[in-house]
Design goal:
globular; alpha+beta; 17 strands; about 25% helix; SH3 type barrels; BirA Bifunctional Protein, domain 2; 2 domains
């Protein structure tokens, strides 16, 4: 099997063997790397034969990727860079899997962040004014049914040296973050149907954008999200729903 990028496999991650980590998080398997282009690329190579609950994790990414083809590097040891391979059975749930993963992860990370982790449609987590984490979902379909899904998740454990970034509380380890994050992502991936009323209420409590004026994907004031993951925006008294695009605030972000 050929893996994308110059992946260097490792038998350990932060001093724990991959076998111990699989048992610790009740996973089918863990594939750890010292450095890799992107954990998503590795997951794509593994996924055709991988069981649901297979985790790819790297100490460093040299060509991480995000939405709209954006690329970045992930510094060694500074955060958690992972992709989780799952095999969902409900195609409807895939409409909202990025939102659900973001919500469940935010709830799981509150204590480690020292404050409420906020969610920003469609795929970001924030602490204060700074971005804490991002999610990228890639799905392989067989006809109208999902064959497998790769849940890419990048988390700053230590705050990056940029004003737009945030990290977890000082002293929090990557293993502490993963102990909370991996089960949360698995719960989100196992959920079915669109977002429930309870999930929508939980999202609204953390919604970074609700009530704020935005410039993209349209000009208006965010009213929240729908059960099927649409961004709801009010413009001149008319409510519009948006399934895709990036959310850009019309004014500088301030969560104070």
């Amino acid at each position: 099997m050929s893996l994308a990028g110059d992946a260097r496999a490792a038998r350990q991650y932060d001093g724990e063997s991959v076998e111990a980590l699989a048992a610790r998080w009740q996973l089918a398997g863990v594939h750890a790397y010292d450095a890799v282009g992107s954990t998503l690329d590795v997951a794509h190579a593994l996924a055709p034969s991988a069981a649901s609950g297979t985790l790819v994790i790297a100490n460093e990414q040299t060509a991480g990727r995000g939405r709209h083809g954006r690329r970045w590097t992930s510094a060694p040891g500074a955060g958690v860079w992972l992709t989780l391979i799952e095999r969902p059975t409900d195609a409807r749930a895939l409409d909202v899997i990025a939102l659900r993963c973001g919500l469940y992860a935010a709830e799981a990370l509150d204590e480690l962040a020292g404050e409420t982790v906020r969610v920003k449609w469609p795929n970001d987590l924030y602490v204060g004014d700074g971005k804490l984490a991002g999610i990228l979902i890639e799905t392989r379909w067989r006809g109208t049914s999902p064959e497998w899904v790769a849940i890419g998740f990048g988390l700053n454990v230590a705050a990056p040296d940029v004003p737009t970034g945030a990290g977890l509380s000082a002293g929090v380890s990557r293993m502490e973050a993963l102990d909370e994050l991996v089960p949360a992502l698995r719960r989100a991936a196992a959920a079915t149907r669109h977002l429930s009323d309870a999930e929508l209420a939980r999202w609204r409590e953390r919604d970074l954008a609700v009530g704020r004026r935005i410039a993209e994907p349209t000009n208006g004031v965010v009213q929240g999200i729908s059960a099927n993951g649409e961004l709801l925006v009010s413009t001149d008294g008319q409510l519009t729903a948006h399934r895709s695009g990036s959310l850009t605030f019309a004014e500088p972000l301030s969560c104070s």
